[in-house]
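User: I'm writing a tutorial on reading structure tokens. Could you give me a worked example: one chain, its sequence, then its tokens, then a sentence or two explaining what the tokens reveal?
Assistant: Sure. Here is the example chain.
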Amino acid sequence: MAAKQTYAGAGVDIEKGDRFAEFIGKIPSKAIGRAQNGLGIGGFAGGLELDWKAFTRPILLSCTDGVGTKLLVAQKFQKFDTIGIDLVAMNVNDLAVCGCMPSIFLDYIATGYINETRLQAIIRGIVEGCEQADCLLAGGETAEMPDLYHGEDFDLAGFTVGLVEKDKMLPRPELMQAGDVVFGVASSGVHSNGYSLARKAVKVDDQQAWDDLLVPTKIYVRDMKALLPLGGLVGAAHITGGGLYGNIERVLPPQLQLKLAWDWEIPRIFGKIEKDGNVDRDEMIKVFNMGIGLALVVSKSQADAFEAGALMGGVAVFRAGNLEAGTARFG
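And here are its predicted structure tokens:
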């Protein structure tokens, strides 16, 4: 008689999945869902009580993103404690540049098998990212699919939601004019874009370069919280795939174009990618953030006061360029 088939025999271990959920619930963090909504980890949904009196015309905004092939660098060195921060960052930064602070975050982890050590490192990074973003890890999903993901293959996706007052949303392209100043806030490195190129460019034995590639994406939520009350801020861009021009131009009106000074300090990792990978500078500019992870468009008349206010608020901004009349678009 043929042996009875089981889910475990097919490659799915329910008990390991349950243990992982229990592990998440025991992480001591204010970012864990039970701390604010009382629902606990493992329910069918997670949420957050909202104070509607704080809004006149609330807009619900949401974002989703992943980490991309940076996961392959994490696999290469079996270092998984920072990519969870990347996952949170790539989502909450997109929300923050719209003037919206993230309220909740959810993760989706797909894998061929449940490697508890790896998953625990990833989720600790996710919790750390949520703490940095002052948002709640309201839930998530871990999907074990051995017929779809083979060997050490896995993938991550994230989702975030927040509320913003309609008249405080960014960008405000109707207020932008030629002469407005573009400020930069430094990136922590490559962040989580362009790794299909970066992984092929750096030297195999350049451990410093590989370490630089694993530096997590900077989370700009608290920076944006400090900057939003300052006068003159009419646009903000999270610099992801597409580089500085491609992302800043997303918030500009059609009659204005971007002019950058290129006089800031560019992190060493970009020089290594360019030199060791024989990558043209124009291609570097098109793909990478080149040292600026957050760009801010500020009205010319209020730029000095904005710069002073930012520095007083603990946000290190620097002048990276300005807007000028024209319709040219980079690349």
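What the tokens reveal: The domain at 173-325 is CATH 3.90.650.10 (Phosphoribosyl-aminoimidazole Synthetase; Chain A, domain 2). Residues 116-132 form the longest helix (17 residues).
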